Amino acid sequence: PPLDEILNLHDFENIAKQVLPEKAWAYYSSAADDEITHRENHAAYHRIWFRPRILRDVTKVDWSTTILGQKSSMPVYISATALGKLGHPDGEINLTRAAAKQGVIQMIPTLASCSFDEIVDAAQPGQVQFFQLYVNRDRAITKKLVQHAESRGVKGLFITVDAPQLGRREKDMRMKFEDADPSVVSSSGSQGVDRSQGAARAISSFIDTALKWDDLKWFKSITKMPLILKGVQCWEDALQAYDFGVAGVVLSNHGGRQLDFARSGIEVLVEVVANLKEKRGLEFPNDKFQLFVDGGVRRATDVIKAVALGATAVGVGRPFLYAFSAYGSEGVEKALQILHDEFEMNMRLLGAPTLKDIVPAMVDASNLQSH
Ligand code: FNR
Where in the numbering of this chain does the FMN hydroxy acid dehydrogenase domain appear (predicted)? Predict the structure, then answer.
């Protein structure tokens, strides 16, 4: 269907399923084991209800914000997703172009199909990009990647901490990666590829399983970029991250692709905010230690719920992959435009002219926690 018939982010998924080669669909859409966490990620938002306010001037509404000190047109960023060329020949550059047009931040994955420099070169002057790091057990390689990213102007380093081993994505494992086009994987981060068991396992064999808290000191010694841990799943680790002096955490289960039965990021957010307030006196959102959430975000209402509960911004993964798979960068632009339009309407209907007006009392999250 033509792009103007696309009404919401779910539509891109249905179309991508029809147009993508079977292998690409398997890699993009799959999640761990029985995909319970994957389904829960979106379902959790269905347990949160709004408490809108009335009779406030909502002629002008403004949902722009700053993420790690960088301007963003909305409290949404494009999360890192590997292997963009499985879906479209321009791969991750589709995301770079659309991010520029819509004023949002792109997180570049270690396992991009395009090379890191191609993605940075595709950015407009002043366009902000973050970098997602899979830590290679060869620290010399990691150091080179990190320092190169910093030298190219990347504004935040998101270290993925939920993937010492890649989860079992069985849909993907049924596909052999060996006859896939080798150009789909850039050589930047991966080395020693085992091609026998699906795309995910093939590209991840270099990841350091020995990574630990103490290593954060080493990261701080090699870069001045803000460090963010991507894949925190309970308040204890969020507190420890804060005490280690990192700039923030992403409450994420990797889109349900790692540990099945991990809780949704939005549910974890509630306990993180409560415990960091109680134990460290922190209020959220907060510029010194920012909380991000990802997984299952498909509507501006989902984003607004996360913001109300204390998140600075949320990450979105699959919908943008599906959008460029079907329509290239214009698809991603359209996806962002849909979110933009949804923000405008929903903030009006909530009686919230700015993000600051989206306070915890605007949501009823009492059904959120499963216990
Ligand atoms: C991912 N994600 C991911 N995360 C990461 O840190 N490094 C990576 O290489 C990838 N690769 C990747 C590939 C694909 C196909 C998907 C779907 C996801 C996880 C991603 O950053 C994010 O956490 C989730 O995608 C968020 O969930 P949704 O928005 O896809 O539901």
Answer: 1-368
Say if ligand 1 is within 6 A of residue 318 CB.
yes
Give the whole-angstrom CA distance, residue 235 versus residue 228: 15
Q: What is the ipTM of this complex?
A: 0.99
Model pLDDT for residues 165-207, shown as the tens digit of each residue? 999 999 988 886 655 555 566 655 555 455 556 667 667 889 9
Taking CA atoms, 33 is separated from 23, 168, 337, in Å, by 18, 6, 34
How many angstroms separate the alpha carbon of residue 79 from the centre of ligand 1? 7
Strands in 161-199 per DSSP E: none
Ligand 1 atom closest to the CA of 298, numbered from 1: 29
Residue with the bigger pLDDT between 267 and 371: it is 267
Q: How far is the CA of 141 from the centre of ligand 1 (A)?
A: 22
- Which tokens in the block code for residue 23? 């292998």
* pLDDT, tens digit (0-9, with 9 covering 90-100), for 26-49: 999 999 999 999 999 999 999 999
Cα 254 to middle of ligand 1, angstroms: 5
Q: Is the CB of 353 under 6 A from ligand 1?
A: no
Mutating to test ligand 1, I would choose from 45, 135, 145, 254 the residue with most ligand atoms within 8 A of its C-beta, which is 254
Residue 43: Cβ within 10 Å count = 12
Instruction: Specify the residue with its C-alpha closest to ligand 1, atom 1.
Output: 81
Overall pTM surpassing 0.90 (yes/no): yes
Q: Taking residues 285-307, report their average pLDDT.
A: 97
User: Which pLDDT does position 192 carry in this prediction?
Assistant: 47
One-letter identity of residue 261: F
